[in-house]
């Protein structure tokens, strides 16, 4: 087997100059504030992968990185398992549904969805401030129900598209379910890892994943996630915003040109 072909999935060698730094940055961004897919998915598409293959392969690399961050957060005691376990169950259902919907969608439809979603996500990243619940926590039963609803809804989104999932989860879990920042980090990672694994399984079964490329990219994503989880603090958030905004802008232009058949 040609190892170059296996690990690059037919992409030119220069693709590594895009994939390596962006997948590392994506891991760091994802561990600190969520939304690493906003950096990693464009990396694949900018190198020329079709939308379905890019989304599917991105699931493999992001799953590898998210696993590392999740383990680190669990060791730090951020996981409230009474919230995580029921949320994970609903996340599986949502991600399975979203992934199968993505397989039915055409490349053109996926591009249009991205073009609609990117400005919304970009605006959120640009103007968002760190939030923490200012009101008392809900009764435990209501908190669990809200976490499950959020997990199912965002699970559908992550399975169908994905970028921004971690950020949306953190926003909703703090703003709607009223979790504190550390519980939010733990529940977010448990849901995000679950949706990634479920979606990856669907894409693997349907032969959409470039396994070698996903494994190679995943190593860079792991490194970024490890560093990001180590420096999980407000200082890190200042690095996240400019990285994500620059990549969103480049990605948006690339998608417009692709939709017009220019590039």
Automatic annotation (TrEMBL):
The chain crosses the membrane at residues 41-60, 81-103, 109-127, 139-157, 163-181, 193-219, 239-257. It is a multi-pass membrane protein. Keywords: Cell membrane, Membrane, Transmembrane, Transmembrane helix, Transport. The keyword Cell membrane applies. GO terms for cellular component: plasma membrane. It is found in: Cell membrane. Belongs to the 4-toluene sulfonate uptake permease (TSUP) (TC 2.A.102) family. PANTHER family: MEMBRANE TRANSPORTER PROTEIN YFCA-RELATED, TRANSMEMBRANE PROTEIN YFCA. This is Probable membrane transporter protein. It comes from Denitrobacterium detoxificans.
